[in-house]
Amino acid sequence: MSPEPLLQVDGLVKRFGGFIALNGVTFHLAPGEVLGLVGPNGSGKTTCINVICGLYAPDGGSVLYQGKAIGGQASHRLAKSGINRTFQSPRPFLSLTVRENVELAAHYGDPNPGFDVDALLADLQLDRYAARPAAELNSAQQKALDLARAMATEPRLLLVDELAAGLNPAELNQMAVRLRSLAEQGMALLVVEHLMGFIDKVTDRVVVMAAGKEFFEGTLADATRDPEVIRVFLGGGHHG
Ligand code: ADP
Ligand code: MG
User: Fold this and answer.
1) CA 117, 122, 127 angle in degrees (round to 5)?
2) Atom of ligand 1 nearest to the CA of 48
3) Is 177 in the same domain as 108?
4) Predicted local confidence at residue 231, as pLDDT
5) Which residue of 58, 115, 149, 188 pairs with 105 in a disulfide if CB–CB is 3.0 to 4.6 A?
6) For 181-225, what is each residue's pLDDT tens digit?
7) Is any atom of ligand 1 closer than 6 Å to the C-beta of 9?
8) What is the Rg, in whole angstroms, of the alpha carbon atoms belonging to the chain?
């Protein structure tokens, strides 16, 4: 039997003025599971993460986390409840050191005095830069720092927005292994990514979206055989 879902998104709607960015998105995610969210640019993937993590309130539908409605709760409260995310374009505090960026996040979450910032930095190969300003990191390292910042709040649900973009093949592989190991430790992950090789390595299931609507849910292998998925991806001009 699959475990109880940690996250249940049902009929989620988000509008920006007259524009409907999410038009009824439904999926669930259990602890230890990695769900991929894929679709052409502008299909609403980041908006979906933004609504789940509390950056935007939904205009319709529901978001249940541990069985409780959280739609509209502020991000900082949700971070304390165990939801955190990475950003498509990370914006670390550039003048703070790498270590200070992570320490700040660790205090911002549900403070755990035993949390080992140094072990986290070492795991993400940022230990060498711990005392350097974040401004000195290259873009792959900034992505790693953004993941460290999110992990410092010890999330149970991690929303990952295009973390793999810009990584070289070796870095991609390391990141895939890292995300899988977080899932093996019981974390639930929602992973937005264009690179299908990465999605294949990391996810158990995928949801495919287009124009704010989810139209496929299943394994990536089945998705790649689905005529509608093929049509939308080719039509969207996005290959990964
Ligand atoms: P994806 O991450 O799949 O590329 P997004 O969720 O970023 O797509 O965007 C979906 C659509 O919603 C796009 O058309 C985008 O321009 C629009 N959108 C996203 N955020 C906002 C916002 N804050 N204000 C207005 N429109 C937005
Ligand atoms: Mg996006």
Assistant:
1) 85
2) 6
3) no
4) 86
5) 149
6) 999 999 999 999 999 999 999 999 999 999 999 999 999 999 989
7) no
8) 17
Number of domains, the chain: 2
Same-domain status, 63 and 175: yes
Ligand 1 atom index nearest CA of 192? 2
What is the percent of the chain where pLDDT is above 70?
95
Specify the residue with its C-alpha closest to ligand 1, atom 26.
Answer: 16
CATH number at residue 76: 3.40.50.300
Question: How far is the C-alpha of 203 from the C-alpha of 27, rounded, in Å?
Answer: 14
CB-neighbour burial class of residue 144 (10 A; exposed 0-12, middle 13-18, buried 19+): buried
> Is the C-beta atom of 141 inside 6 A of ligand 1?
no
The encoded tokens of residue 157 equal 């649900």
Atom of ligand 1 nearest to the CA of 43: 3
DSSP per-residue letters across 37-48: EE-STTSSHHHH
Distances (CA, A) of 26 to 13, 61, 209: 10, 9, 11
Contact 200, 220 (CB under 8 A): yes
Specify whether the CB–CB gap between 93 and 100 falls below 8 A. yes
Give the structural domain span for 24.
1-82+156-240
Q: Confirm if 217 and 35 have CB atoms less than 8 A apart.
A: no
Based on the domain organization, do 66 and 162 belong to the same domain? yes
